[in-house]
Amino acid sequence: MLTVVVDGFFGDTGKGKIVSYLSISDKPSIVARGGVGPNAGHTVVYYGKEYKLRQIPSGFVHKKSLLLIGAGVLVYPPLFFKEVRLTSTDGRVFLDYQTGIIEDKHIEEERKSSHLVRRIGSTASGSGAAMRDRVMRVLKVAKEISELSKYLTDVSGKINESLDKNENVIIEGTQGTFLSLYHGTYPYVTSKDVTASSICADVGVGPKRVDEVILVVKSYVTRVGEGPLEDEIPMEEAKKKGLLEIATVTGRIRRVAPFNFNYLERAVMLNSPTQLALTKLDILFPQDKGKTSYSALSKEAKEFVESIENRIGIPVSIISTGPESKSTIDRRRELGLI
Ligand code: IMP
Ligand code: MG
Q: Residue range 181-205: average pLDDT?
């Protein structure tokens, strides 16, 4: 069974947490990462330890999963090696032969670009400059880098083979729907499309192979960098409400807005999810922190979940009530989805 996990807002909705939970519960043979590259930051908290990952799939917590990075993704080798050590995943993490390589010159170029840094609010991780070089067909790919030789594989081949054997596979997206180069708030976007279709293409999987698309949305909306944000709440007010967050990659304070149905409806249209995952419910409803069953949720929290389901017509099958992988309400069985 193939499950694709993508973000319905501007990134940072907690995909890392959802993918880490799914990896432990569904025991996938493969967790593959699509998306842009090290501009993404996914946070995984497992047995009290926090991992901030920019390259390695968040499913690393399931020790038997093969961890793959698709041909459409960008890798900055020094960061990749650092995360392989951090997660102790040597021997089960692989890149596609044709995964694009970010070099120091790409990072330096972006850091010097006031258009990217000031106007767009880029993470300046070299992703955009590397994408441009890829389009011009001058970017190096993984098979040209000798230090990467033992990490190379045919990612598309591995995933499709595993699906032929009816094994579970998770594809993890990065960034968020409205940071998509095509469908987002251009020009305040990242350097690639990051909707579900592109995430599949990044790892070499055709649309007919997909069984479930899980769209991850947070109980409020955040955005880092420049660009429009509907109903943005002033920083002071957000702070009072306990909604301030610090960005994983850049350390910037995230801008905040209330939960937004317009964004959700459009994200549903663009990604065709079969299920929704709702994260950080405990931030809106602190009394529900750490809960693991739907029936135990407060009346207010349940009303919020129902308001989403009634409006969108898609089940909220997974609810996150805390940063730990285990602080999760998994309703898939009770809803007849598995
Ligand atoms: P870039 O992709 O680093 O050039 O950044 C372009 C825009 O996308 C900036 O507003 C970044 O803050 C935002 N962005 C890129 N990656 C992420 C992410 O993983 N989470 C949230 N925002 C991101
Ligand atoms: Mg993030």
A: 98
Lining residues, ligand 1, CB within 6 Å: 10-12, 36, 39-41, 116, 120-123, 125, 127-128, 174-175, 179, 188, 190-191, 224-225
Task: Locate the ligand 1 atom nearest the alpha carbon of residue 250 and give its number.
Answer: 12
**What ligand has the least distance to the C-alpha of 53?**
2
- Give the ligand at the shortest distance from the Cα of 40: 1
The domains located in the chain, with CATH, are: 2-330 (3.40.440.10)
| Long-range residue pairs from 185-188, CB within 8 A, at least 24 positions apart, any chain | 185/227, 185/228, 187/119, 187/120, 188/120, 188/121, 188/225, 188/226, 188/227, 188/228
Whose Cα sits closest to atom 20 in ligand 1? 11
| Helix extents (H) in 125-178 | 127-135, 155-164
pLDDT single digits (tens) 118-147: 999 999 999 999 999 999 999 999 999 999
Strands 255-258 and 220-223: antiparallel
Check whether the bond before 38 is cis (ω within 30° of 0): no
